Amino acid sequence: MKLHRTALVAAALGTFFSLAHAQTGKWPEKTVRMVVATAPGGGDDFVTRLIAPKLSELLGQQFIVENRAGAGGMIGQTFVMKVAPDGYTWLLAGGSMAGARYVNAAVTYDVLRDFTPVSLLETSPFIMVVHPTVPARTVKDYVALARSQPGKMTYATLGAGQIPYWAALLFNNMAGVKALEVPYKGFSEAVSDLISGRVDYYFAPSATAVAHKDRLRLLAVTSIARSPSFPDIPPLSEAVPDYDMPAWRSIMGPAGVRRDIVIALNAAIGRTLAMPDVRDKMRGVGSDPSPSTPEELTKRYADWIERFGKIAKASGVKPM
């Protein structure tokens, strides 16, 4: 009986130490997957593929990038939400996730409940651009023009929920402008129609705007202050006080990832974003490397969820 009891105790201790090792074991011990919820070639893809090999070097395991595009990002986002929280699947998460539930009735996730924030990666302004035939050389000029003919000016968006959409809603509300939205499926189509004069203005990704600066007029950046990448372009807030609508990207995992794993990845991201070659490449496309703590990222999402909610309410936006 004593031997039997000893065997049971030994088995129990063995199980305990096995579980303890599993819970505190070295991470990572195998390939890590970074999911991008948009198609290859875009800004999300660029940033993720830039940092993945650096994380591989720092953490000793391969970090691979997997694109799972579709449904406005929901395919990749819900995929990561549902995977095991073991630290081997992460999401490149954009700021637009904070506003998704206000425009899309199909959104099933709650950002603060269903994901584990790790670190902010970067912030970057969009740039308000107009067709050269629009008689406005400054934002103040444009506001005066639009107010003089309410409902006649047109602006491009990528459809409800993307940052250019929110940027336009916020601008129209704060500036007292009434204009007609023209939704597009992608950046290239929106810019093409802007260049051809089919629409009047657009909040374009900074790299896209600068690439077409000879055929478009760049009025302002959407950040609250001047961008280090574009010091000669004034912030929109100079004409519309307190206006602020930057794009930003972060890394998140499914809810429940172990704290030690989150801290390890956060530290590696911070080291990666401090590397001169990474910083130079990001700034070359208008991005400002901006690491954060997990707690700072959580607060950022909470603040922007509230902010997008206020914009949606002021604009009469309902989820569809």
Explain what the structure shows.
The chain has twelve helices and eleven strands. It has 320 residues and is of the alpha/beta class. The protein folds into two domains: 29-124 and 246-315, Bordetella uptake gene, domain 1 (D-Maltodextrin-Binding Protein, domain 2, 3-Layer(aba) Sandwich); 126-238, Periplasmic binding protein-like II (D-Maltodextrin-Binding Protein, domain 2, 3-Layer(aba) Sandwich), CATH 3.40.190. It has a six-stranded mixed beta sheet. The termini are far apart.
Give the helices and strands, then pairings.
Elements: H1 2-24, E1 32-36, H2 43-59, E2 63-67, H3 74-82, E3 89-94, H4 100-103, H5 111-114, E4 115-124, E5 126-130, H6 139-148, E6 154-157, H7 163-175, E7 180-183, H8 187-195, E8 201-205, H9 206-211, E9 217-221, E10 247-254, H10 259-273, H11 276-284, E11 288-289, H12 294-315
Parallel strand pairs: 1-2, 1-3, 6-7, 6-8
Antiparallel strand pairs: 3-10, 4-10, 4-11, 5-8, 5-9
Helix pairs in contact: 2-10, 7-12
